[in-house]
Design goal:
It comes from Neoroseomonas oryzicola. By secondary structure, the protein is α/β, with parallel strands linked by helices. It has 2 domains: 207 residues, Rossmann fold (3-Layer(aba) Sandwich), CATH 3.40.50.2300; 153 residues, Response regulator (Rossmann fold), CATH 3.40.50. It is built from 12 helices and 15 strands. The strands form 3 sheets. The protein has a 7-stranded mixed β-sheet, sandwiched between helices. α1 packs across α11, α2 runs parallel beside α3 and α4 packs across α5. It is globular.
């Protein structure tokens, strides 16, 4: 996989090449600087790189289409910052972006980075649009500058549990016992608390909750504990490398629960995992962010990504959509002013359509898009299929996996 240059850079992305200057050039509208914050070094570098790719594709498209028309065709200029896979790195980059005069920041990926970076941005009334970070603390602090287009883990967990009950009921209730495996940070720990509270209400017994660090180098002890408990279901919430390691270890140790049902998992809805480790990935289910397969733009964006010999990961459509949201708000604000942009973002309504997520009409309440929703996927025949919601599923779930 080609590596992006990590050093800070500020460049204008667009379809225009080097053209001969006309004799009497027209005045060019000043570029609008947009901060893109992603972890492109450290444990989360894969997610950061694909998040940056989504932002770049959106900026290219906006600039090639004439820029921000309400600002005289102003082009978007990316100011990139590497969060270095930790909250301190994210805060440091926010300070640099503030000094460079960005009108807004998009990204962060991980919940701890988004939490710290959006707080830092709030000191300057700097609009911050979260791309992925699912901790509901991000939007529960009353920060007027912070907006999350996608769902948080409260919404995702409820959807995951509703779909799990429907899945289990339809199969004759083969599963009753569960082991939860989660990363020990803000995202995974919050998810585990919600699952522990809600699973018993829905007829499941949580045998044990197992935390692991990020990064993790070995999953043998976790797998051995799962083997000894013999749960019907394993529910993992981890970042990419850790779940790949767990899934491969379980495969090697021939641990076969009736289902691996992931929630916001970094690998389970990831074509890299499917392509590189097809046996470990086979029939794994996930409830996660995923683009709307019904939208033609989804297929177009995927073609652009795969033409670069890259994998199709949810980070790319999430960041593409988040940048499009900022561009839409700039058009409605009519000026590259932070206060006006915050007001325009807060007033976003169903008219915003230039995204490729499976959401209803966009409406922010306390910074959270009320329409943000996950989907359920399952790896089938070396492909990722949508199994819930039923109205646009392209496959039936395969469950239980073993008797």
């Amino acid at each position: 996989m080609a590596k992006f240059e990590v050093a800070r850079r500020s460049l204008v992305l667009g379809a225009a090449g080097v053209l001969a200057a006309p004799a009497l050039p027209r005045a060019q509208a000043p570029a609008v600087k947009l901060g893109i914050l992603q972890p492109v070094t450290g444990a989360l570098s894969q997610d950061g790189e694909y998040g940056r790719l989504g932002a770049e594709l959106a900026i290219n498209e906006i600039n090639a289409g004439g820029g921000i028309r309400a600002l005289g065709g102003a082009r978007i200029e990316m100011v990139f910052g590497d969060a270095r896979s930790n909250p301190e790195g994210g805060v440091s980059e926010v300070e640099k972006m503030q000094a460079e005069g960005v009108v807004a920041i998009v990204g962060g990926f991980a919940s701890p980075i988004c939490l710290a970076a959006s707080q830092a941005a709030s000191r300057y009334d700097l609009p911050y649009v979260v791309d992925v970070g699912v901790s509901d603390q991000i939007v529960s602090r009353g920060l007027a500058n912070t907006f999350r287009f996608g769902p948080g883990f409260g919404v995702v967990t409820n959807a995951a549990l509703d779909n799990l009950v429907a899945l289990n009921d339809a199969a004759g209730k083969p599963s009753r016992t569960v082991v939860i495996v989660h990363e020990d940070g803000l995202f995974g720990s919050g998810m585990a608390r919600l699952l522990n509270a809600e699973l018993p209400k829905r007829g499941f017994e949580v045998l044990e909750t197992i935390a692991h660090p990020t990064p993790a180098r070995d999953m043998n002890n976790v797998a051995l504990r799962i083997r000894s408990l013999r749960p019907d279901l394993v529910i993992p919430s981890s970042y990419y490398a850790e779940f790949v390691l767990l899934a491969r270890t379980m495969q090697q140790q021939r641990i076969r629960p009736k289902g691996i049902y992931c929630v916001l998992n970094g690998a389970a809805s990831n074509y890299r995992f499917v392509r590189e480790f097809p046996d470990a990935a086979n029939l794994v289910m996930d409830c996660n962010h995923w683009p709307d397969p019904r939208k033609p733009k989804t297929a177009e964006l995927r073609r652009q990504v795969e033409a670069q010999n890259r994998f199709w990961l949810y980070n790319t459509p999430m960041n593409y959509s988040a940048v499009m949201l900022v561009a839409d708000a700039l058009e409605r604000a009519g000026r590259a002013d932070r206060a006006a942009l915050i007001q325009a973002l807060a007033a976003t309504d169903g008219a915003f359509t230039k995204h490729i997520m499976p959401y209803g009409p966009t409406r922010f309440v306390n910074g959270q898009n009320q329409a943000g929703a996950p989907v359920n996927t399952q790896v089938q025949n070396n492909d990722i299929k949508v199994i819930f919601p039923r109205d646009f599923a392209d496959a039936q779930p395969v469950y239980p996996v073993t008797g």
